[in-house]
Specification:
Chain lengths: 244, 330
Amino acid sequence: MASLLRLDRVTAGFGPTVIVEDVSFSIEQGDVLAVLGRNGVGKSSLMKTIAGHTRLHGGGITFNDRDIGALASYHRARGGIGYVPQTRDIFPSLTVEENLMIAAQPGQWDLDGVYELFPNLAQRRRNGGQEISGGEQQMLSIGRALMGNPRLLLLDEPMEGLAPVIVEKLFEVFELLRDTGKFAIIFVEQYVNLALNFAPRTIVLDRGRVIHDGRSADLAADPEKMAVYFGASGQGANAGREHH
Amino acid sequence: MTTIPAPPVAVIAAPSGLARLLQLVPWFVVAGLPLVLPGYEPLAMQVFVMILFALSLDLLVGYAGIVTLGHAGLFGMGAYTAGILSVHGVTDPIVTALAAMVVAALTGLVFGAAMLRTKGLTLLMLTMAAAFLLYEIANKATGLTGGEDGLQGVSFTPVLGLFAFDFRGKTAFFYSLVALFLVFTFVRILINSPFGWSLRGIRENDARMVAIGCPILQRRVVAYVISAALAGLAGALQAQTTQFVALHSLSFELSGNILIMLILGGSGRLYGAFVGVPAFMFAQDLLAKQDPANWFLGQGIILIAMVMLAPGGMLGIAERAMAAIKRRLS
């Protein structure tokens, strides 16, 4: 069976600037992949490239047996790529429910499903997009991506700036989504230990290139590599909380 | 023009039962006005037509975030379509009004598809240029439009074959009031539909709308075409109720004035047009009486004061006052 998503020597960036260089990997349905690396190495740009928000300079992207390298990003979204950006981007003048409804595509996920996953959102359905907490905004952003019934979920630093108790809650939801086996999930995360625990596979970026691609458990068990990738002080590694 | 504020959340909650009936009360009050104030029908129908026109603009400015200084181009297309048809023997008001909507919508489609790829100042200039283009065509095509003299000999048969346009303007009054009510109902349904939400989404963050699978150019063009059809209807009503089409109906002055009326009332608020248009016309009347030569100055001062001090328009002031009272009481 062909891969759900395959990047083949992808080079991309903004305008003439190249940020992601020569990146190749592929994932199957049900896979969970963590993208790690220091600040500014191109993790977010890689996510944007898959979602179609950068300029592709070289290489190819196939999704669902289809070449999507030249496809407009709204076609990619409709084709099953759900992108949750770092900035969340809730529409302030729409209510929670309206924010969800505008992203609806036919499929398994609907309002009821999202409200069941995030009961907070159900309580806040009539509230404006600006009247909810940061954690709720993140839930809304994820819920909105689910409303599009994606097969691939791209999560860009979903835990950034959230209280530990919310982080716990969101990880439970991610585990639930992971365990359905219906999605492939690619996520960028600063909490290295959390990410290594959650995703069976990890790629590490440095200056736009993949410098490591392998089992998360192997990486976690290799203190030398951990120090090289994430800093001698364990920057990032220590910033992450132990999960469970 | 970047100061147009985001409208508040859920200004109009889905009404139900009694609330729905109560919302009809103002319409009946207005419909009863000729009994109390006879002789004001011609002025009132002018106001209705302008409110309808401002509503069509609100769809663009207040909801889709498309600021235009050429909306009179579409209004004028509707006015000339109805007028020219009547001169050439098609004199049924409803048929010509529908024809005017179609012509204005097609005009909106052609210009919209070309212009809406751009944003901000570029788009603003293009909307102006498009309207100037139409104005000059109408100015030069004297055989068809009458040019600067305006289109003479416009007349229409009775509405539905029953109600003739009379000298006192009674028929025109009710005809334009019913049209306004229908358009208002349509716009209210539209902005509370997923299509309407997506327009607000595009206004607030178009990149994000693209990322959740929304073809934003297509949505903007559709909004523009709908708005154009409504503006064309307003133009047709103007031609039918005044039995005349002037070049003014395509003019930049009208494009600017209707935008001022909308901002004065409050854009993105649905009722802004209902407040802004009468307020503007009243102020215009008052100022012109005070100083016929310089009333533009007064109009300018009011506009500047409004934009600086009350970015939400008159309805914005009312909303803030209500919020303050609520805080006091709780």
